[in-house]
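Write out this protein's structure.
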Amino acid sequence: MKRRNFISMMAVLAAAGVLELSGCSSSGSSAAAGSGAGTASSAPADRLEEIRQRGTLIVALEGAWSPWCYHDDTDTLVGYDVEVSRAIAQQLGVEPEYVEGEWDGLFAGLDAGRYDIVCNGVEVTEERAKSYDFSQPYAYIHTALAVRSDNTDITSFEDLAGKTTANSIASTYMTLAESYGAEVLGVDTLDETIQMLLAGRVDATLNADVSFYDYLNVHPDAAFKIVAQTDDASHVCIPVRKAPESASLLAAVNEAIDTLRADGTLAEISEKYFGSDISSEA
């Protein structure tokens, strides 16, 4: 399969040292950050110290992407990213405070200093590394290409040329689809994406392989199939603002991830939500 440079960019960034900087319980608010959040104009001299004085780690996520972060039958915010970020907050000695929003809004809030971190299955890319510092990986995933079960025209990423896909705006999935010549329609949730695919409104969609498998486990009769996936695993990391005051926070997040990997917590959470350990690179 033909691969674009950015698919393997995570490995390049790791080799270059981008990743060396050692780095959902009840639902949070849906639009604005919590009252303790900082702003770009009043950024603290040390973000970690400000977090500890506040007593909360403000975590931004979508809240609608199973099994990463979603609401269960009791409307409780749950998922892999929820439990991982909660465990990181505990390592920092504070409580997590969750703020839900659309994908691109998560980064706008991080840019403005309203959120401390984004924990939402964020993959490292060359473009994102220009604006954010990333923790070490806490998960490794492959991007998969899905089509309707009766589709025989698309069997590889190369077949996306001239086709339509549905994906979140500014996501790595959108970028990958466009790099192969697809027209991408912007959507907000995985459920919406799959419904558009099943209704024939788009030809294909891309997402994390584990997210598709989870959807099929819950909806075994869903008439779509995975026809291809990237060879190289993407690094899922936690971005923080690229600013001097964030250095101590990034170091603390990395230390927390090290601890959670060493004591088996990451593997346990991963098995719970994915049925396999995605916290370590195979």
